[in-house]
Design brief:
Layout: H1 4-7, E1 12-15, E2 18-19, E3 28-33, E4 36-41, E5 46-49, H2 62-77
Antiparallel strand pairs: 1-5, 2-4, 3-4
Organism: Caballeronia grimmiae
Protein name: Growth inhibitor PemK
Pfam families: PemK_toxin
C-alpha cells in the first residue's frame, strides 16, 4: 500500500490486510484476489518490517487500488 517514494528508502512497508470473512463497512473495500472474494481492511492499516513479507502474492486491480486510495483520502480528511 505504501508508495515507492516511501518504501524504496525504508525497511518498512504500510499494509492493509485482506480478509475473506469480514463484515462490509464504508472503509472496507471489496476485492477479488486469486479467485477469492474479500475485503481490504482499511481499519487495520499497519506498518511492518519488509523482512516479515515473505513473498509477493500479486497485485490488485487498478480500479480497486484507485477505490482504496480514494477511501483513504476520505477517511483521513475528517
Amino acid at each position: 500500500m505504501s508508495p515507492p517514494e516511501l518504501h524504496d528508502h525504508l525497511r518498512t512497508a504500510i499494509i492493509a490486510p485482506m480478509s475473506s470473512n469480514g463484515r462490509p463497512a464504508p472503509f472496507r473495500i471489496p476485492v477479488s484476489f486469486k479467485q477469492k472474494e474479500g475485503l481490504i481492511l482499511l481499519d487495520q492499516i499497519r506498518t511492518v518490517d519488509k523482512l516479515c513479507l515473505v513473498k509477493k502474492e500479486g497485485v490488485i486491480a487498478d480500479e480497486t487500488l484507485a477505490n482504496t486510495l480514494h477511501t483513504l483520502q476520505e477517511v483521513f480528511a475528517v
